[in-house]
Amino acid sequence: xxxxxTHILPGLDDGARTLDDALDxxxxxxxxxxxxxxxTPHVRDDYPTSADAMLRAxxxxxxxxxxxxxxxxxxxxxxxxxxxxxxxxxxxxRRLTLAGNGRYVLVETPYYGWPVELVERLLxxxxxxxxxxxxxxxxxxxVQANPSLLAPLVHGGTLxxxxxxxLDGRLGPRSxxxxxxxxxxxxxxxxxxxxxxxxxxxxxxxxAIEAVNDDGLAxxxxxxxPQALVAGSDLPPRPPTx
Length: 242
What we know:
There is one protein chain. The chain is an alpha/beta fold. The chain has eleven helices and ten strands. Strand 1, helix 1 and strand 2 form a beta-alpha-beta unit. Helix 1 packs across helix 2.
């Protein structure tokens, strides 16, 4: 499995606080069957992470993993707040893309409301040659009330990432119901943990893919699509639903 939304880089945001925290998270990923992750610190007002800071932290974590013998591939990346997209130049945006491939940008869904600015920024990314990956929209109240809000975005080229803890029920019934509805209606493309700490969305996705109860679809969500995002290539076709 490949997990493209994690907050494992120590000291950059509200995820891992120390290197020991990050190593514990890495061990948990490996134990769950995750072979690669993207380290995606927040880029927003309270955590204005730069590409330079993120890349330095990725290099340091890779070195620590090698020293500890932990077999986990770490790709660069970031989770961008909507209001920060316009503040970043194109060169900085490309350095913050998933796996640094210059194409796929992880964008944080606001937790409240459905601002016009979100739609405008996602469209702007598409016009600039990026493909937005919208993180955890199933946790947004407006989407829970009306999941079809995502349809025009997806039809316009935006991809959607749902949270593992939504699918396996840890984030409550409304997030779970919405996540499954997005998967069923082809409005979701990948699953990721959004892991912060052991107490806040713990590392791991196995329980979520077991909840999907369709091996082919689960592999598409946690292996096939994430591999394409890392490679910067087009998505593979979704398998027929069992």
